[in-house]
UniProtKB/TrEMBL annotation:
Pfam families: M20_dimer, Peptidase_M20. This is Acetylornithine deacetylase. It comes from the Bacteria. Residues 173-279 form the Peptidase M20 dimerisation domain. SUPFAM superfamilies: Bacterial exopeptidase dimerisation domain, Zn-dependent exopeptidases. InterPro entries: Bact_exopeptidase_dim_dom, Peptidase_M20, Peptidase_M20_dimer, Peptidase_M20A. It comes from Pseudonocardia kunmingensis.
Length: 384
């Protein structure tokens, strides 16, 4: 296998499953490998502990200008239970490389690293290039938040960021955010043979769900954005009850409210809570969000976005901006005013699947796009 294939295979061999709150240095062996590999190819690399021994890795290749192109992707993967291919023994079949993380997101990581190594070897280097491999993207985003705290997203200055995710070689410039919270109904409980006059939390939540899906969610159509469409709301979990002959004292649903650009997830929660408590002022509690993420909407006219589109067009790929419904680290990087695009080989439909794979043709095509982008002088109007 050629360089990017060989590196991807090695990255897959190093487990980096997100521990989801457990105190384990899950991604650190992969971060250490990336740092050693980068140093061996003429680049500087540093590890930065985020939490519980879990380390981000930051690779730097100085250029002719202090203006920086940031390449960011995540080191962690989801779990491997139920996989139908060996998760950590990469295999190639029918032009596809299989293994956990093949497309999400060790494929983009291999593309970024090999493109930087080739740039270090042959140049030219119109910009400084920084690669950040971060932890915890699959859970609560602590890796990218730590990256921001360190100022990596502001050094240079950063003229633009490519966030590595499977996009089927499309340039994603917009995606949704989310607000997830739990809604609990309470009642006095009692024997199920005497339900009269008693508040049944399950019945209350049935009314809540009917309102959310029948009135609240349809009204979101008015907030549609061009590339991602409207916000959405889905009830994703329900729990409650202790026995078939007992009226429950509580029942809880979890809602996943997807947001679009211009919406603050915390304000969305506050408005939803006010709506529900106005309608059900007693017996209902709306907990503060346990997960929030912001939407992304990058200006398609930004010089960096235009440069990525030009490179895609010249390589024969679709250069038009695209929107997606899922979130990425790009929305957090964009908080610092960095124009972000999300790009990588493989399809999101293959991420997290039992036979996760990346098409080798797309892997090499993505490498070609990065090669061309990193050698292009991007004129931002700011002094170099």
């Amino acid at each position: 296998m050629a360089d990017v294939e060989e590196l991807l295979a090695q990255l897959i061999r190093i487990p980096s499953i997100n521990p989801r709150g457990r105190a384990e240095p899950a991604e650190t062996p992969l971060a250490e490998y990336v740092a050693d590999w980068a140093r061996g190819h003429g680049m500087a690399a540093d590890l930065h502990e985020v939490v519980d021994g879990r380390c981000n890795v930051v690779v730097t290749l100085p250029g002719d200008s202090a203006e920086t192109i940031l390449l960011e992707t995540h080191l962690d993967t989801v779990e491997t239970e139920g996989m139908t291919v060996a998760p950590f023994a990469p295999t190639v079949a029918d032009g596809r490389l299989h293994g956990r993380g093949a497309c999400d997101a060790k494929g983009p990581l291999a593309v970024f690293l090999t493109a930087m190594a080739d740039l270090a070897r042959r140049g030219p280097r119109p910009h400084t290039v920084v690669l950040a491999g971060v932890v915890d993207e699959e859970h609560v985003y602590r890796g990218v938040l730590h990256l921001r705290d360190q100022g990596v997203t502001r050094n240079g200055p950063v003229v633009g960021a490519v966030v590595g995710e499977p996009t089927s070689l499309r340039m994603v410039t917009a995606h949704k955010g989310c607000m997830r919270c739990r809604i609990t109904a309470r009642g006095p409980g009692g024997h199920s043979s005497e339900p009269w006059g008693r508040v049944n939390p399950i019945a209350t939540l049935a009314q809540v769900v009917d309102h959310l899906t029948g009135e609240y969610a349809p009204a979101l159509e008015a907030l549609a954005r061009p590339l991602v469409g409207p916000p959405s709301l889905a009830v994703t979990m329900i729990e409650g009850g202790t026995g078939p002959n007992v009226l429950p004292e509580s029942a809880t649903i979890t809602v996943d409210r997807r947001t679009v650009a211009g919406e603050d997830p915390h304000a969305v929660w506050s408005e939803l809570r006010h709506d529900l408590l106005t309608r059900w002022p007693e017996h209902l509690e709306v907990a503060e969000p346990h997960i929030v993420d912001h939407a992304l909407e990058t200006d398609p006219g930004d010089p960096f976005v235009r440069a990525v589109g030009d490179v895609l067009r010249e390589a024969g790929h679709d250069p038009e901006p695209k929107g997606v419904g899922h979130g990425t680290d790009a929305s957090k990087i964009a908080w610092d005013g960095v124009p972000c695009v999300v790009f990588g080989p493989g399809a999101i439909a293959q991420a997290h699947t039992p036979a996760e794979f990346v098409p080798l043709a797309e892997l090499h095509a993505a490498r070609g796009v990065l090669d061309a982008l990193l050698r292009r002088r991007i004129h931002t109007g700011a002094p170099a």
